[in-house]
Specification:
- The protein has five helices and ten strands.
- By secondary structure, the protein is α+β, with helices and mostly antiparallel strands.
- The protein has a single domain, classed as Roll (Pnp Oxidase, Chain A).
- The relative contact order is 0.19.
Length: 224
């Protein structure tokens, strides 16, 4: 299947024309982002925690300290909602009511599973590391047994998934187009700055090549 099925929990109901279920587009959004927000219930209290993630095929991994309340709670198989949002631009309309943002977002519903298998856990951590900087896993010291024990990795399958996307110029009331007010889109983009070396780097340590971070060098999206 090339698309995720729209379920009662994932079907976009508000502005449904912005709903996206195509797997390629969903994967592209997930692969561009670094940070997700994980929503769950603990002791009848809703919690939403920001954390890093990585997509690997039809699943995403999240990880953190074994002492993390979030990870200990999710390990019990509670329902989880994972969201990722990328902001592409500020949409300035002629009327305040119609100001908006261009964005791409993904919502994932499901339950998390503890990654207990050592090989899968190491592979997940490799994916995390290389998602941040391609090839970094092979450059840095890899985790020892104590560090692996102190780290919890959970996996959430991409079964119930939908994306929502807004792109393009502002949409004003027809009569407002006659107002002498500037309207349009201010594109936004995350860019990598000049790498700042650790002062304790050894002289033999090679310099970091920031051009490896190709995701931060993409041109602004064209606004039709």
């Amino acid at each position: 299947m090339d698309s995720y099925p729209a379920t009662d929990r994932t079907q976009v109901k508000r502005l449904p024309k912005r709903g996206v279920y195509d797997k390629a587009q969903v994967h592209a959004i997930l692969d561009e982002g670094f940070l997700c927000h994980v929503g769950f219930m603990v002791d009848r209290q809703p919690c939403v925690i920001p954390t890093g993630y990585v997509r690997a095929g039809e699943k995403i991994y999240i990880h953190g300290s074994a002492a993390s309340r979030m990870l200990r709670t999710l390990d019990r198989g509670v329902n989880v909602c994972v969201t990722v949002t990328l902001v592409d631009g500020l949409v300035l309309a002629r009327a305040v009511f119609h100001h908006s943002m261009n964005y791409r977002s993904v919502v994932i519903m499901g339950t998390a599973r503890l990654v207990a298998d050592r090989d899968e856990k190491i592979d997940a951590l490799r994916c995390f590391t290389n998602h941040i900087v391609p090839g970094r896993w092979d450059e840095a010291r890899q985790p020892n047994d104590q560090e692996l024990k102190a780290t919890t990795v959970l996996v959430v399958p991409l079964n119930e998934v939908s994306a929502k996307v807004r792109a393009g110029p502002p949409i004003d009331e027809e009569e407002d187009y006659a107002l002498p007010i500037w309207a349009g889109v201010v594109p936004l983009r995350t860019r990598a700055g000049e790498p700042l070396p650790d002062p304790r780097n050894l002289p033999a340590a090679p310099a970091f090549d920031a051009t490896r971070l190709t995701r931060f060098s993409k041109p602004f999206a064209k606004i039709d």
